[in-house]
Design goal:
This protein is mainly beta. The chain is built from 1 helix and 78 strands. It folds into 6 domains: about 100 residues, Immunoglobulin-like (Sandwich); about 80 residues, Immunoglobulins (Immunoglobulin-like, Sandwich); about 80 residues, Sandwich (Immunoglobulin-like), CATH 2.60.40.10; about 80 residues, Immunoglobulins (Immunoglobulin-like, Sandwich); about 80 residues, Sandwich (Immunoglobulin-like); about 290 residues, Kelch-type beta propeller (Neuraminidase). The strands form 19 sheets. An 8-stranded mixed β-sheet has the order 10-12-15-14-13-16-17-11, with no helix packed on it. The longest helix is centred in the N-terminal third of the chain and has 23 residues. The N terminus is likely disordered.
Length: about 750
C-alpha cells in the first residue's frame, strides 16, 4: 500500500515539473499583416514575428495564386531585424487583376512556422524605369547602354524600342540593358522605350550624330575614278551611306566613321557637281563643287576615210566605258568600238549629213571638237557600160560608194536612176526612161554633197527614146491628129491649166523639143480633126456649121474656107494626097443611135471647093472613129478606129481610080491609135486592143510586101489617145494615157530614129 502511494506522489511531481518547462519555453510566433499595391505596380507584403528564444534559419513570405500554396508558389526571403517586423516589395512575376495569396513564414533549424493566409488583387509587376543612357548621341548600329530599374521580369521578355523601331538586346539585368541602335531607325531624334509585357519605361533625348564633310580628294577627277570623302559620323556600312553628285547617286566602295571612298558615277550629267552625303538619316553638303576634267583631243587618224572605216582618236580624259563616250560627225552620232582614258576607236557613220564634218567627243559631261575637219573620200567611177537600153540593169564599177546602196544617188542625164543593189565597189542600177534629148547620157554619182561624173557618155540604144517629159499641154483624145506643114509640126489641144478650157495651136520646136502656143480664132469641138497637105493646116471644126479653117504657117494667118459639104459628124477620117484634103466617114455622137457615116469628100485648096469620092467601105453596122491614116507614094492607107473585135481590116485609097482596096489586116482590132509615114513605110502606134488594154507597141506597114511587122516598143508604159507625127526623118509620139488602163494623161514625148 505504501509503495502504491509513493508511486502516485512521484507521478504528480513529474507531471508538475513538465508543465513548468512548457511555460518557460514558448514556440516562435509569425504573423501575416495586410499587403498593399505599389504606386507603379508590384505588391508590398508585411509581417511580424516573435522568436521566443528560437534561432531563425529563414524568414520571409510565400506568394501564390493558390490559397493552399501547392502550385505556382514563390518564396521571397528577407533579413530579420531588431524591430521584429518584415516586409518585401514584389516587383516582378505578378500579373494584373489577379488575386494572389500570401503568408509570412519563419523557419528554425527544426521546424517552419507560418502566419495566417491573406490575399490581394494585383495591378501587375512594376513598370521599367529608365534613369539615363550611356550617351545621348550615337550612330546607327552602335551599342547603346540603358540604365534604370525593373528591367527584368521572370515571366516576360524585355524589349527596347527607338521611336517604335525594335532594337536588338545584347544583354539585360534589372538595372542595365545593352542594345544595338537599329539599322531601320527612321528618325534622327528618338524616344527610347523599355517594354515588358504592356509596361513601358520611356526616355526622351537620344539623337543620331550629324555627318560632317571636311575634305574631298581629289576635287577634280573623271567618271569612274575613286575619290575620298573625309569627315566624321559616317556609317560603317556601305549600304547605309548614300553619296550624290547633284542628284546622281554614286557607288560607295568603302565606309568608315571618318572616311568614305566612292566612285564618280557614270550618269553624272554636268561638269560641276555638288557632293551630298546622306548618313545617320541626315544630309550634309560639301562647301566646294566637284568638277569633271574636260576631254581633250590630240589627234585623229585617218582624217580622210569612207563610210564604215575605223578612226582612232587619241587624247585624254575620255571615259573608260564605251557607253560613257559619244562621238559626233557634225550632228551624227557614231558607233564606238573601243575606249580607254586616252583612246577612242570609232566607225564612220552611214548617215553622215555632209562630206566634210567636225568630229566632236562628248565625255565627262562635256564636249570638245577637233580643230581639223573630217573629209569623206569622194566616190570613184571606174567603169560604166558604153551603151544600154532604158529599164536595163547595168553595173557601175568603182570605189568608195556607200555600202548602203540606197544612200548613193545615180543619175543619167540628171535623171535619177533606181539602184537595184550594190556595195562599196559596185552599183547595179536600172537605166531610167529619160528624157535623153541627146540620145546619150552623162552618168553621175552623188554621195552627200560630193558629185563625180564618168568621163564617157553612155549611149542609149532604144530606137524610141524619151526626149522630153514636160509637155506644156494635155493631150488626151484631143483634136484628132497632129500634122506637119511647111516642115513644122502642129497639134491642137488644151493647156495644162485645168481651169482653162480653151483649145490652142501648138508648134513643135525640134531643136530643143519645146512648144510654142498660139491662140485660135475659133474654138473647135473636142471631136474635130486637123490635117495638112504639107504646105498648110486644115481644121474641120465638127460644129453644127461644119466650119472648115485653113492656117498658113508662112504668114501665121487663119482663114475660113468652104464648109464641109457632108452631114456634121465627129471623129472623121482624114488624110491629104497631092495637096488635096480628104475628110469623111466618122460618126454623129449627138444622135440617139450614134449615126455612122461612110461618105468621104475631097477638098481642093486651089479652088476652095469640095467633091464627093467613093465611100469608105467598112462595115457601117459598127462605129469606126479616130482612124489611123498615112500616105505613101500618093496612096492613102486607113484603118483602126475599131469598136468591135472584128474591125481589124485596113484599106488603101487610090485617087487615080477613086477606088478603095483592102490590104493586109492589122494584127488586131484596135482603137485610140495614132499614125505617121516615114520613108516608104507606115507606122501605127500604141492604142487599145478590143480584146485587151492599152499597148506600147509600134507596127510598121510595108506597101511593097503588104505586110505588118512589129517594131520596137515605145517606151515602157502602155499608151492610148495620144498623138504621133514624123518630122525630119524621125517619128514622134507623146501625150495620151500612159498607164495600162489608159486612164491618165502623159506629158512625155518620144523620138524614133529608124
Amino acid at each position: 500500500m505504501k509503495i502504491k502511494q509513493i508511486l502516485i506522489i512521484l507521478l504528480i511531481i513529474f507531471t508538475s515539473c513538465q508543465s513548468d518547462d512548457e511555460v518557460d519555453n514558448p514556440m516562435p510566433v509569425i504573423n501575416t499583416l495586410n499587403a498593399s499595391v505599389g504606386a507603379n505596380g508590384g505588391i508590398n507584403v508585411y509581417g511580424s514575428y516573435e522568436l521566443n528564444g528560437y534561432e531563425i534559419s529563414k524568414i520571409g513570405f510565400e506568394v501564390s495564386t493558390d490559397s493552399l500554396f501547392v502550385s505556382e508558389k514563390k518564396r521571397y526571403e528577407v533579413s530579420n531585424n531588431s524591430t521584429a517586423k518584415i516586409s518585401y516589395f514584389v516587383t516582378t512575376g505578378i500579373e494584373e487583376n489577379i488575386r494572389y495569396y500570401y503568408r509570412a513564414f519563419l523557419q528554425t533549424p527544426e521546424e517552419t512556422f507560418y502566419g495566417e493566409t491573406r490575399s490581394i488583387v494585383s495591378d501587375g509587376s512594376v513598370s521599367p524605369e529608365i534613369t539615363g543612357l550611356s550617351s545621348n548621341y550615337g550612330h546607327i548600329a552602335d551599342t547603346l547602354t540603358i540604365y534604370g530599374h525593373f528591367f527584368k521580369d521572370i515571366n516576360y521578355q524585355t524589349f527596347v524600342f527607338l521611336s517604335e523601331i525594335r532594337a536588338f538586346v545584347l544583354s539585360a539585368n534589372d538595372s542595365v540593358i545593352q542594345c544595338t541602335i537599329p539599322v531601320s531607325i527612321r528618325t534622327v531624334s528618338s524616344e527610347v522605350q523599355v517594354q515588358i509585357s504592356n509596361r513601358i519605361g520611356r526616355y526622351e533625348g537620344f539623337t543620331l550624330h550629324k555627318p560632317l564633310i571636311s575634305t574631298v580628294d581629289p576635287l577634280a577627277s573623271l567618271i569612274g575614278d575613286t575619290i575620298t570623302i573625309a569627315g566624321d559620323h559616317f556609317d560603317i556600312s556601305n549600304t547605309r551611306n548614300r553619296v550624290f553628285f547633284n542628284d546622281i547617286k554614286a557607288t560607295v566602295i568603302e565606309s568608315r566613321r571618318q572616311e568614305l571612298k566612292v566612285v564618280v558615277p557614270a550618269a553624272i550629267d554636268a561638269p560641276a557637281s555638288i557632293i551630298r552625303v546622306n548618313a545617320q538619316l541626315q544630309d550634309t553638303v560639301f562647301k566646294q563643287s566637284f568638277t569633271l576634267l574636260p576631254p581633250e583631243i590630240d589627234d585623229i587618224t585617218p582624217l580622210t576615210a569612207t563610210f564604215r572605216d575605223e578612226l582612232t582618236i587619241t587624247g585624254k580624259n575620255f571615259d573608260l566605258e564605251i557607253s560613257g563616250n559619244k562621238v559626233y560627225f557634225g550632228n551624227v552620232l557614231a558607233q564606238i568600238t573601243y575606249a580607254d582614258r586616252n583612246t577612242i576607236k570609232v566607225i564612220v557613220p552611214d548617215n553622215l549629213e555632209k562630206s566634210r564634218e567636225t568630229i566632236s567627243v562628248f565625255a565627262q559631261a562635256q564636249q570638245t571638237s577637233y580643230n581639223e575637219p573630217f573629209q569623206l573620200i569622194a566616190p570613184q567611177i571606174n567603169l560604166v557600160p558604153q551603151s544600154a537600153y532604158t529599164d536595163e540593169d547595168i553595173t557601175i564599177a568603182g570605189d568608195y560608194f556607200h555600202s548602203k546602196f540606197n544612200k548613193n544617188t545615180v543619175t543619167f542625164e540628171d535623171v535619177e536612176a533606181t539602184i537595184v543593189s550594190g556595195d562599196k565597189e559596185n552599183l547595179t542600177v536600172k537605166v531610167p526612161r529619160g528624157p535623153y534629148p541627146r540620145r546619150k547620157a552623162t552618168v553621175k554619182i552623188q554621195l552627200l554633197d560630193l558629185v563625180v561624173e564618168y568621163q564617157l557618155d553612155l549611149t542609149v540604144l532604144d530606137k524610141w527614146i524619151m526626149v522630153s517629159n514636160d509637155l506644156p499641154f494635155e493631150f488626151y483624145r484631143s483634136i484628132n491628129g497632129a500634122a506637119v506643114a511647111n516642115n513644122e509640126a502642129y497639134l491642137i489641144t488644151r493647156s495644162r491649166d485645168f481651169t482653162d478650157t480653151g483649145y490652142y495651136l501648138w508648134k513643135f520646136n525640134p531643136d530643143d523639143y519645146s512648144w510654142t502656143k498660139y491662140v485660135l480664132p475659133f474654138q473647135p469641138k473636142f471631136s474635130a480633126s486637123v490635117v495638112s497637105n504639107d504646105e498648110k493646116l486644115y481644121v474641120y471644126s465638127a460644129l453644127d456649121n461644119n466650119d472648115f479653117w485653113e492656117f498658113d504657117p508662112a504668114s501665121q494667118q487663119w482663114a475660113r474656107r468652104s464648109q464641109f459639104p457632108g452631114v456634121r459628124r465627129d471623129y472623121t477620117m482624114h488624110f491629104a494626097i497631092h495637096g488635096d484634103i480628104y475628110i469623111g466617114a466618122g460618126v454623129d455622137i449627138e444622135t440617139y443611135d450614134q449615126t455612122n457615116y461612110r461618105d468621104v469628100y475631097k477638098y481642093s485648096p486651089s479652088s476652095d471647093t469640095w467633091s464627093k469620092i467613093a465611100d469608105f467601105p467598112y462595115n457601117e453596122l459598127f462605129m469606126r472613129i479616130e482612124t489611123s491614116s498615112f500616105v505613101i507614094n500618093d496612096i492613102a492607107y486607113v484603118g483602126n478606129g475599131a469598136t468591135n473585135t472584128g474591125a481589124y481590116d485596113f484599106w488603101s485609097y487610090l485617087p487615080l481610080n477613086n477606088e478603095w482596096k483592102p490590104i493586109a489586116d492589122f494584127p488586131d482590132a484596135r482603137l485610140y491609135t495614132a499614125s505617121f509615114q516615114l520613108g516608104n513605110l507606115g507606122y501605127v502606134t500604141c492604142g487599145t486592143s478590143m480584146i485587151g488594154s492599152a499597148t506600147k507597141d509600134c507596127w510598121i506597114y510595108d506597101p511593097s510586101l503588104n505586110t505588118w511587122s512589129k517594131s520596137d516598143d515605145i517606151g515602157r508604159l502602155e499608151r492610148n489617145m495620144h498623138f504621133a507625127f514624123s518630122l525630119n526623118g524621125k517619128g514622134y509620139v507623146g501625150g495620151g494615157g500612159t498607164t495600162p488602163s489608159g486612164g491618165n494623161s502623159g506629158f512625155d514625148l518620144y523620138e524614133y530614129k529608124p
